[in-house]
TrEMBL record:
Domain Glutamate synthase residue range list: 83-287
Organism of this sequence: Pseudomonas syringae pv. coriandricola
Bias-annotated ranges (Gly residues): 304-314
Region spans: Disordered: 288-343
This protein's name: Glutamate synthase protein
Cited Pfam families: Glu_synthase
Signal peptide range: none
SUPFAM superfamilies the UniProt entry points to: FMN-linked oxidoreductases
Molecular function terms from GO: glutamate synthase activity
Family in the record: Belongs to the glutamate synthase family.
GO annotation, biological process: glutamate biosynthetic process
Length: 343
């Protein structure tokens, strides 16, 4: 390219460690079009991964099993905290939610068949439940999303578990998009949308504004399903230490923690690449540290004669937090933690 006023070549932007060729191209594209880039898939940056883990073998402190004559079970039970019909899976690996629309009906059916053969569960995703998927899935988890696309109480009752989606690892705090080219007549009919038009999913549920409303919604779904189905709460990994505590307090049977490596049908690239935290550091924050501290606190309270069990009822404000409010008139961090409203 050249400058038409003086016929001099335009300056070339040199690459650097911070601004590589793709970054420069994206800045130029955004400046020219005035819109952010939308794409599907997951993050392209290098992140800690499960392949980085090393496993501890058995020796003296953990005696090994003879594989050809001793059984090593991998089965897992999900939802026996409150549900009348918990989920019994043969393996602790499940298939996450991918919507009908992002995937075809044949793909959803294939996932159901594969999950059934493996003895695990698959998940509907946004847009509702298809007969093909339900018919071929022994264990089907129904996602209850902010968009409410395709949601109806009958499908809630047909499912084997309900997953309330509060966030997604690829875009925690942000909504998604289904491009118009994928909104066929069938997809549009299930979602009550016009054919061929881009569809944006909401970033939060329309009928609640905080953790207490989540507890109300869980109770409502339990009533709709006659307390039969396990209820999951899915969280995009961002503040797992606090989010896990609030989900447990709200009465969730299962907590799904989704790291930023998770994929999506379509959203802003800046969300995919720069929002959230990877799953490996999220697990210790959300599961290990939070639940260990809470279980220790529960045991201490039992030892002092509090007379409470270790269920969801004890996730309330501490006696000390109630007796000693902040002297400045504002709630301290400890007060907010105790009542479950730390944002």
């Amino acid at each position: 390219m050249s400058d038409p006023t003086n016929n001099k070549p335009a300056p070339v932007l040199r690459e650097s460690a911070t601004f590589d060729r793709l970054t420069i191209q994206e800045i130029q594209r955004a400046a020219e079009t005035g819109i952010y880039d939308i794409r599907g898939g997951g993050t392209k940056r290098k992140l800690p991964h499960f392949d980085d883990l090393l496993l501890l073998g058995a020796s003296v402190s953990r005696y090994p099993l003879e594989g050809y004559r001793e059984k090593c079970g991998t089965d897992v039970v999900l939802g026996n905290r409150f549900a009348k019909k918990p989920l019994y899976l043969k393996i602790p690996v499940t298939i996450a939610g991918m919507s009908f629309g992002a995937l075809s009906a044949n793909a959803k059916e294939a996932l159901g068949r594969g999950a059934t053969i493996a003895g695990t569960s698959t998940t509907t995703g946004d847009g509702g439940m298809t007969p093909e998927e339900r018919g071929q899935s022994q264990h089907l988890v129904y996602q209850y999303l902010p968009s409410r696309y395709g949601m109806n109480p009958d499908d809630l009752r047909k499912a084997d578990a309900i997953e309330i989606v509060l966030g997604q690892g690829a875009k925690p705090g942000g909504g998604g998009m289904l491009l118009g080219m994928k909104v066929t007549e069938r997809v549009a009919g299930m979602r009550t949308l016009p054919v061929g038009v881009d569809q944006r999913s909401a970033c939060r549920h329309p009928d609640w504004t905080g953790p207490d409303d989540l507890a109300i919604k869980i109770a409502e779904i339990r009533e709709i399903t006659d307390w039969e189905k396990p209820i999951y709460v899915k969280i995009g990994a961002s503040r797992p230490y606090y989010d896990v505590k609030l989900a447990v307090k709200a009465g969730a049977d299962v907590i799904v923690l989704d790291g930023m490596q998770g994929g999506t049908a379509a959203t802003q690239e800046v969300f995919i690449e720069h929002v959230g935290i990877p799953i490996l550091p999220a697990i210790p924050q959300g599961a290990t540290d939070r639940l260990r501290r809470d279980s220790q606190r529960c045991r201490r309270r039992q030892g002092h004669g509090a007379g409470r069990g270790c269920g969801g009822d004890w996730y309330g404000s501490t006696d000390r937090a109630r007796r000693q409010p902040s002297t400045s008139g504002r709630r301290t961090e400890k007060d907010r933690l105790g009542s479950g409203f730390l944002r």
